Amino acid sequence: MRGKITTQFWPIVFFFVTLIILFIPMMHHNLWSSDDWDVHLLRMQALNQQLDHQQFPPLFDYWSSNQRGFSWGSFYPPLTTLVFFISRLILLGVENNALQMKVSLALIIFIAAASAFYATKREFGSTSAGFLGATLFISSSYFLCNFFQRFAIGECLAMALMPLLIRGCNALLSGNSDRKLIPLAGTLILLSNIPSVIVTLIFFFIFSLIYAKKVFSKDNILFLIKSAIIVLLLTCFYWLPLMYHMHYSDIYAFSNMQHSYEFINGTRVSFRHLLFATKNTDTSVGYRLFLSPGILVIVLSLTALFTDKERVSKPMLLIAGILMLLLTPAFSWTWIPEKFTLLQLMQFSWRLLSCITAILALYAVLPLLRWMKKSKTWLATFPVLLLLQVIFPIQGAIFSAPPEYSSTVLFHDYVNNRIKLPVTNDSLNNSGYPLLTEPSDFINGFPYFTVEADKAGIYLLPYIMYSGYYLVIDGNKIPPIALENGFIGVPLSPGTHHLQLGYKTSIYLIPAAVSLTFMLLLIGLEIRRYLQRRRLRLDHGERYHIDDAPDRSNGR
């Protein structure tokens, strides 16, 4: 099945029809009701405001109502922020939050399709296989659940990259050049969604156990060490500032959003919901979600398992089976000691489905390719089954009433632990400190105040306190006061003062310079290797032509 297969017309048709079906909810005049839609819309709106006010790097939201300088940019993995920025460029200045979000979602769908297409085509040496793999992946129940039910944009993007990771791991076993996809996918997943990093670590641990002899060869060990260094250096612009805030900023998410294994146990999925792709009705966390790869993907994968005579799919499908057991009642997460906290970052056991689905969609292609060659019945049966797999996760997005959006909600994720929610004007006025309200201007994206102080004392600047802030008062740079209510305190003497809030951007710019330098170095090395290989091919061709040229010297 790995031989070259002639490109077929119908796999391409089914792929584009699937894309059209997925874009039907995009035609909605607004966004659809889902779990985290308002969080990501607020993130995107904050980014737009920061770019409009030339704040670099874009970190703090001083403009959205009641956000109080809240920082998504300091903590949330930045790859989806890049997607928001690209969608902003595509719209050429059109200011429409719903439209920009839809363009961002469409970009992620295209990334997922391209990732699955490349991985499947390289795995089986077939363009038809590539289109079928992409179709099965983007139509899978859990992929659509992340989009149209959970609105989990970070996890959507991380899941979109999983096929590249799977292909890279397969290439690691054979020494194929595609093993470079491991550090590439690892880097992009880390910059997309932290819980998905835990999913990849669990997958790779099981993968290494099953393929221990091949994975732990000397060459592969050196490659994996180099890959780990590459991932760490390319992403240090994100995780180094994150570590800084973990140590100095006392953020709610770092101390209160890491769930216990008992909680993760409560997110397990029953076998009937997992295998038959029905709505989850057994647990409050994930209630009414489609927590399954999808019935079509599962049936085709099982067919591949029992009909693959070359046994190319069985070990990887075994890994998918083990991962599926981990998210069902067959496994208890409480068997893991609470002291081993790393896996708790995954939060929900069903996040393993992002990796499971990528594996199953890859090998579900095998029986489809055989079916396609032997009979034309697949032309009628496959699209019907595909439609049934797609329609249920997206129907809510098609028929739901447009949600009401409010930017006044201050989410607790990345505030400091001294902040008491909800924050209102009354709570600030009654804080016991004179309140500085509207800034006179913004300089480089940071607020500037002209203040008339009636008396000496500490004044309240209504912005959330984060480590790294500084104040410039009448030209003098001083550290701010961290008030007990979580906001910024400003010491002022009586009289008129000019006050500028600033931030030590070197916390971000120095790690960013390291990542950028290393990325340019890698690109330069890859270009050099390409040119060397090209020169060798040309030299080989010239020698071939010289050696094979007929000798006409005796005929002169």
Automatic annotation (TrEMBL):
Q: Does the keyword Membrane apply?
A: yes
The name on file for this protein is YfhO family protein
The yes or no answer to whether the keyword Transmembrane is present is yes
- Top-level lineage group: Bacteria
Q: Where are the transmembrane segments?
A: 9-28, 70-91, 103-120, 126-145, 152-173, 185-209, 221-240, 285-305, 317-336, 348-366, 378-401, 507-527
* Alphabetical keyword list: Membrane, Transmembrane, Transmembrane helix
